[in-house]
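dude i think i finally got it to work??
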Amino acid sequence: MADVEMITNVGLGVIATALKGVSYLEPYYIGWGTGTTAPVATDTTLETAAAEARTLGSTSIVTTNVASDTYRITGLITCTGAEKDITEVGFFTAATAGSLFARITFTAVTVAVGDSIMFTLNVVNTFPTA
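look at this
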């Protein structure tokens, strides 16, 4: 499980749109890759996306510090191609193309054909409270 390392500029737009109550595309599609460059706010895709298709995650609102302060995306990706070292994950608004909401890099996890990784992303409200 990982807390957000970097919400992209586009991701901030998704949050603002949701707060305004305007229709938006929820970022629950998950893709992985082998890129190692640290995330930056201007990222629009994974650095080096792997061949596997993005998977549809599930979303929920959970409690981290106070009631309902965390948006959670959870999903499983299975290796269908050659063995590879997975080092990044991205959360997108569509199965293909779409906007990159958040990107996280991490120490390599080697996956062989048939291996899976379950990803959980928590977007936690850390705004000061009274």
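The first helix runs from residue 9 to 20.
im so relieved honestly
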